[in-house]
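Notebook B, p. 112. Complex prediction, attempt 2.
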Amino acid sequence: MNMPSGLGRRGLLFGGAAAGAGVFLAGCTSNESNDDDSGGSERNQAASNEESGPDVTIGFAGPQADHGWLSAINEHARSRAEEYDDVTLEITEGSNDTAQQIGQIESLINSQVDVLVILPADGRSLTQVALSAMNAGIPVINLDRVFDTPQAYRCWVGGDNYGMGLNAGHYIGEQLKDVEGARVVELSGPDNLELTVQRTQGFDDALANYPNIEKVARQAAEFTVESGQDVMSGLLQAVPEFDALWNHDDDQGVGAERAIDQAGRDEFFMVGGAGSQHVMEAIQADNTVLKATVLYPPTMAASAIDLARACAQAKGIGGLAEFEIPSFIQLYSAVVTKDNVEQYLPTGFN
Amino acid sequence: MASAPPPILTLSGITKSFPGVRALDGVDLEVLPGEVHCLLGQNGAGKSTLIKVVAGAHQPDTGEITWQGERVALSNPVSAMRLGISTIYQELDLVLHLSVAENVHLGHERATAGFVRRGEARTRTSELLARLGHPEIHPDTIVGDLSSAGQQIVSMARALSHDTRLIVMDEPSAVLDPDEVGNLFRIVENLTADNVAVVYISHRLEEIRRIGDRVTVLKDGRAVARGLPAKETATKDIVALMTGRDVEYSFPRRAAPFDSAADEPVLVAEALTRAGEFDPLDLEIRPGEIVGLAGLVGSGRSEILETLYGARTPTGGTVRVEGKRLRPGSVISAVRAGLGLAPEERKAQALFMLESVTRNVSISSLPRFSRGGWLDRSGERDAAHSNIKELSLRPDNPDAAIRTLSGGNQQKAVLARWLLRRCKVLLLDEPTRGVDVGARAELYTLIRRLADDGVAVLLVSSEIPEVLGLADRVLVLREGQVVHTAPARELDEHRVLDLVMEGSQA
Amino acid sequence: MTTGATPEPSATASLDKPAPPGPPPAAATGDKGPGQGPRLVLGKLFDLHTLSLLGVLAILCVIGAITAGDQFLDTNNLQLVLTQASVIGVVTVGMTFVMIGGGIDLSVGAIVALASVWCTTVATQEFGMGGMIFCALAVGVGCGLVNGVLIAYGPMVPFVATLAMMVSARGLSLEITGGSTQMVTVDSVLDLGRRDSYILGIPPLVIIFAVITALGWVLLNRTTFGRRTVAIGGNAEAARLAGIAVKRQRLMIYALSGLCCGIAAFMLVVLSGSGQNTNGNLYELNSIAAAIIGGTLLTGGRGTIIGSVLGVLVFTLITNLFVLNNLESAFQQIATGAIVVAAVLLQRRSASHTT
């Protein structure tokens, strides 16, 4: 990451020597920062303290980690598995290509893993291969994006998009309940995704409880920083004054915050979605419009590892009376505010 | 010929004009069933236009077409095909990545409810190929994999896959070697035996003597002789018919006879070769000299020009300009050394049709009008203007769009480009193609003047009088080989035509 | 200027001698797209495109004033629209050169992404704003040169070469970021996107955009580089036979496009305060569309910088109108598609009327 000290910076910047540029560029790909993340064990609820059971091999197949949340999923799965000395994790190179992901799952089946954790690139197209794993006697823990039929998984664990909207709406509603004629703006994700529709539905349902609040504008961004900046700057121009903003996704929120900063606006507060580290830090610092975010916790991958291990060892999970793991677990979209952010900060993703 | 059967096809008084050119000027043609009717004529005599009229690809402006006694309108190629007229063009119109069977049935696929009956098509194709003496060609072979002779056979099979009564063959022997020509003749004989009429176009007189029945000679868009017996008419009579002219071009004479030893040659080519296109060539051109290359299409003349110019990479030999050797296959090196080319396909190879005259003229001299890449546009325009004035290009407007100009003026713009560049050697490939009569004379004067000013000129033309009228020295080409070199004054049109057609001095 | 000054003489002259030679169906005379009318000289055509686009912009402004009055007719909104046009605008200037030169560059979005993430890595940010700018430009030019070498000397079809670049540059930017958003921590860069650094009320990004537009116009219309670009796009074979170094020219055109992407990448970093591998999404389509409605021929040989920039402004204004009126993005996509079709049809039409 460091530039060779022998090369003069001035020469590099202005001389334009191709070789120098090459060296410079090669040195500039590093993203190692000094204040590195905390270790795995602090990032979520501690692993259960039960003693080791029989050795378990867990196969994990996810989509390509082209998004902060998805790389956090991989990271949580990996670090959780490392905490157990009886768990071996076989993790595939993530892929967004359905055919490729099917191939990866098939090879995991062939290598006789004890249990599979699958976050499908597309739930519908991967249902068949999950079914065949189940038929081969390999239980499947379905992570987040649900398969077509319950027969294709032993247990589903995932987030609650409707709940995200609902909790964001209730939080905003409670904050604004004494404000006459309160105005709310929504910056949603891409409209062609089912999850966007669910989030908006939850948000609207929650706001319906507060007759003093009106949603005055809603525009869709593309889950990217660039689109967040672009759409938010337009929204700010369109609505000269409002009281609260809910942004569906913290990645596009980076752009939205930038637009708010550039417009110099601060008459409202902003609620995020998903729970990135950056947003949690901002909530903790409390010096921007960001006051809260509703979680779509990537820790679900760690939970999936726990479930897979328990399933393979034929145990239930701690805190539940049953002898087996449940078949369907929907996670709560907690609202992270300044009051509780300390606790959630380690789960924030980049 | 009173006892002859009624003609299957009669054309009378066909005229066809293109902007600036009268391609057919009242042509009559009569084809009898079962005969081989040969069409002869120099390039530009109107043969191609005439067969396109027969094929329904061109609509005549005036004139009548009678098919089996009934007047018909051949409004498109399909209607001609329906009547039973098939055409095999020189440039075969096959789809190279489809199979033989698919090509043969292209456009009239044998199908049931949209599904091609492939088996039947294959069987039928095999039969046709066997009839043409080529049972070894498999119907499933991809056409692009066949030799050009094989492709021609496929083209014929396609023609015969209809109920064909008349086949037009445009220089079918040009792509064939002697054995294959023998097979072609056998096919033609079989066809005529089935009472199919054949219109046969060739430059090779000996072929016409072998298989032709009657000959029609075209010249300047007219049929100057019709229905001559192919076997009896004397060669010199045919050549005379082909070359005799109504319009005699006047070629400007040079002021003083050219002194061939006065100057060092500006361009020297030594053993310049492109395998498969032309044999090793030695050539010297002196400043002010005009050297003519006479030969038929496909004799390698354009290839020689383009290889000298670096547009094609030679397989051997060198080109020197003023003693400096050119980098083989580099146009940039050739232009830098002072060569300029006015290519054969003016629109495709020389002109920027969306641009003004100025920009077309200045394109090769941009560095002269720029400092540090910054264009001096008024200087550029003025220079272009004075050049086109000098060449009396019309309109006298450097801002006119080049596409609005006539062919002759477009050619002048190309010459102006090299004039502006102050080139030392000018390579002219068919400079008067598509140029009307009046403009031709002007171009001739221009070429003469350029030479008088010391430019060395290498001139390629299918029009033998043009070569003889302009050049000081003529190289006669036949199949990639220089078969004769002589001062132009020692040659005449008949002699050159003999040389290019027969290759011997008979 | 001289081209525009004297169109009339040629118009009359062409009536006297309307004789293009040879048989008409020759391939070379084939449809070269709109504007083939023999009596339309370049100067006039330029005006036609520009005028029709200005007309569309005027109509959009009227719609904006009616439907979103105060919010639309506001200095802030003008600043906003111009800022939003800036990044894609700079990319489109480069794309216009590529298209006039007879090529296509599908990798612009991916190069913007790669340059923006490369110049926002922790390591690059240590060098401050200068290092980040240098890095963005070097990555852009580097990718452009690779495109150019593949296309000019490969030789590869531009579509394929730039498609390959698109995929690999996106892959590399994902590899660098690991999918996460790289926040800019250099204050001078962040400040550049804020209101305080507006110069006479003009955002710095808009100034960069204006400068690039002006430079692009000069390069296209006043230099040998521009002239050669038009020539190889209009007729590559003729350009080669006229002695133009076609390969070198192609190489430089793609390097130029890469440079524009590098500049745009840095602008995007300033705008969004971050670098992300999803940056520049669909820039290739948007910039090609803007150039097309600006009058650039897909087949090459003709196009204007002004037209392309107006094309960008049309698209940006449409987005602006939709957001201000709180309409769904689905309708916006439909409207954008319809505008492209309408613009092209209109140009065809006006071209054929004058023919």
